[in-house]
Amino acid sequence: MEKAEIGLIGLAVMGSNLALNIAEKGNRIAVFNRTAHVTDEFYANAGALKDRIIPCKTIEEFVDAIRPPRPIVIMIKAGEPVDQQMAALQPHLDKGDIMIDAGNANFRDTMARFDRLKDTGLTFIGMGVSGGEEGARHGPSIMVGGTEDSYKRVEKVLTSISAKYNDEDCCAWLGTDGAGHFVKTIHNGIEYADMQMIAEIYGILRDGLGKSAAEISGIFGEWNKGRLNSYLIEITEKVLAAKDPTTGKAMPDVILDKAGQKGTGKWSVIESQQMGIPATAIEAAVAARSLSSMKEQREAAEKIFGAPSNSFPMAFGPDLLRDLELALFAAKIGAYAQGFAVMAEASREFKWNLPMPVIAKIWRAGCIIRSQFLDEITSAFTKSPDAANLVVTPAFSAMVKESLPSLRRVVAAAVTAGLPVPALASALGYFDAYRQARGTANLIQAQRDFFGAHGFDRVDGKDIHHGPWGSGANG
Ligand SMILES: NC(=O)C1=CN([C@@H]2O[C@H](COP(=O)(O)OP(=O)(O)OC[C@H]3O[C@@H](n4cnc5c(N)ncnc54)[C@H](OP(=O)(O)O)[C@@H]3O)[C@@H](O)[C@H]2O)C=CC1
Ligand SMILES: O=C(CO)[C@H](O)[C@H](O)COP(=O)(O)O
Which amino acids does the record list as binding substrate (predicted)? Predict the structure, then answer.
C-alpha cells in the first residue's frame, strides 16, 4: 500500500477535523486513536476522503504506514497524555522523524519535551492551533515553535491547511522551543478577555436595560458591521438568536451561568505575573470565570446583599448604544495591548525574537479572536516596531482617545448600578494608570521604607534613600 506523507494521533473534535483538512488538501494521511472504535467511526464517516486516509489500530501499524522521515501530529488532551503518547511512540520512530504536539500545551511542558528529545535524533515541534472545530476542518491559525529548519520540513503541509487572509497564510514559525505554545496561550488569554468583556456588555443590556436575548442579538449584529467586527461578536449575535428546541426559550436563557476553563487563561495570567507585565483585563476575565463557577455561594450572597438595582443610568440618551459599542472597543484595545506586551517581554526573556506583526497577521483569520482589528494591529506594529505598547502607536492612541470617554461613562454607570464589569473596569484602570506620568507609588515606597527600610529613589536624584523614620532616620 502507498505510504502516507504524514500521520495524526487523536481523533476527537480537533484531530478528526484536522485529519480531514490534511487529506482534503491532497495529502495521504495515517490516523490513530487510543480508543480504536473512534478510528473506525472516523474512517466510516470520511466520505470521498477515505482514499487518502489509512486508519490504523496499533502504534506499530501507524508508524509503519508513514513514509520516513515521518511527520506525526499529536492532537490529544494536553498534559500528561501527551507525555504518555510520546513515550509510546518513541521506540517505534527513526532518526529524523518529527513529533508535532498540536494541542494546547503549557509552553513550559513543551520546553521540557524539547529538552528530553535533545539527543535522540528525533525532532519535536510545539504548535498552537486555533479555530475550534470549523477552523480545524477548513483552515485554522497555526503558531509554530521549534527550529526554523524543522518548520521548513513541514511548512508545505501546514500552510496548505491553514486559514488565509487576503491570500496570506495564517501559519508561521514564531521562534524556538516553546514559542508557538506560548503565543497560543496568550491568544487564549486575549480570547478570555474578549469574551468576558462581551459578556459584561451583555449583562448591562440584559440586567441594566431589561433587553431580551433577541434584542441583544440584534445589537451585536449591528456592531458586527462596524469597528467591532469579529468572529466572537458574530457568534454572540448567533447564540443570542438561537432557540432552545426543548422549551422554545432563547438558548442563553437556559444555559447555567458557570463558565468552564481548561487552563490557558490561567497560564497567561501566571506568566504575565511572573514577568511583571500587567495583564489586568485577562486576569479579570479568568477571575470572573472562577467566580462564575461559585454558583451556590453567589446565590447565598445575593440573599444577603440583594441583586443589582436593574437600572442602568439613562443619562446617555440616544447615544447609549454607541457608548456601549465604543466602551467595548476601548476595553478590547486594552486587552490586546496587554497580551502583546506580555509576548514582547517573553520574547526578551526566552530569546525567541517573536515577530509581533506576524503574530497579529496569522490571527487575522482562522482563530477564535480573528477580526479586522488584527489587521490594524499588524499595521501598527509594522509601522512602529519599537513601540513600548500598542496603545502608544499613532493609530491606536487615536482610537483610545476617541473611545476612552465612552468606556469611562459605561464603567461609571455600571458600577453605580451595581452591575459587575470587572474586565471593562480593569481595562479602564490600566489606561488610567499607564498614562499617568506621576502616580502614587511614591507613597508605597515611603511605607515600604518605614516598615522595612527598603529604601527609595528621590525625585531630585539626591543620594538619600531613607526617610526620617525608624532605623533609616539618619539616611
Ligand atoms: N476543542 C477545541 O476547540 C480546541 C482544542 N484544542 C486543543 O487540542 C487538543 C485536542 O482537543 P480536542 O479535540 O477537543 O480533544 P480533547 O482535549 O477532548 O482530547 C480527546 C483526545 O485525547 C485522547 N487522549 C486522552 N488521553 C489520552 C492518553 N492518555 N493517551 C492517548 N490519547 C489520549 C482521546 O483519545 P480517546 O478517544 O482514546 O479517549 C481523544 O482522542 C487539546 O490539547 C485541546 O486543548 C486547541 C484548539 C481548540
Ligand atoms: O484553544 C481553544 C480556543 O482557542 C479551545 O477551545 C480551548 O478549550 C478554550 O479554552 P477554555 O476551554 O479554557 O475556554
Answer: 104, 130-132, 187-188, 192, 262, 289, 448, 454
Question: For residues 125 and 367, what is the distance between their CA atoms, to the nearest angstrom?
Answer: 20
Residues 111 and 211 in one domain: no
User: Active-site residue numbers?
Assistant: 184, 191
Report whether residue 130 contacts ligand 1, using a CB cutoff of 6 Å: yes
The percentage of the chain sitting over the pLDDT mark of 90, rounded to a whole number, equals 96
Ligand 2 lining (C-beta closer than 6 Å)? 104, 130, 132, 188, 191, 260-262, 264-265, 368
Examine the domain organization and report whether 231 and 261 are in the same domain: yes
Identify residue 80 by its one-letter amino acid code: E
* Closest protein CA for atom 7 of ligand 2: 262
Which amino acid residue places its CA nearest to atom 14 of ligand 2? Answer: 261
| Number of domains composing the chain | 3
Q: pLDDT of 409-439, one tens digit each?
A: 999 999 999 999 999 999 999 999 999 999 9
Is 19 among the domain residues?
Answer: yes
Closest Cα to atom 48, ligand 1: which residue? 132
Look at residue 200 and tell me whether its pLDDT is greater than 80: yes
What CATH number should be reported for the domain holding residue 318? 1.10.1040.10
**Mean pLDDT, to the nearest integer, of 381-397?**
97
* Percent of the chain as helix, strand, coil, to the nearest 5: 60, 10, 30
ipTM for the whole predicted complex goes beyond 0.95: yes
Please state the pTM of the whole predicted model. Answer: 0.97
Which 3 state secondary structure label does DSSP give 55?
strand
d(CA 127, CA 122): 16
Residue 11 is assigned to a ligand binding site = yes
pLDDT in tens, 70-87: 999 999 999 999 999 999
Within a domain: 440? no
**How do beta strands 53-56 and 171-175 pair?**
unpaired
| pLDDT reported for residue 47 | 98
Minimum-distance ligand to the CA of 103? 1
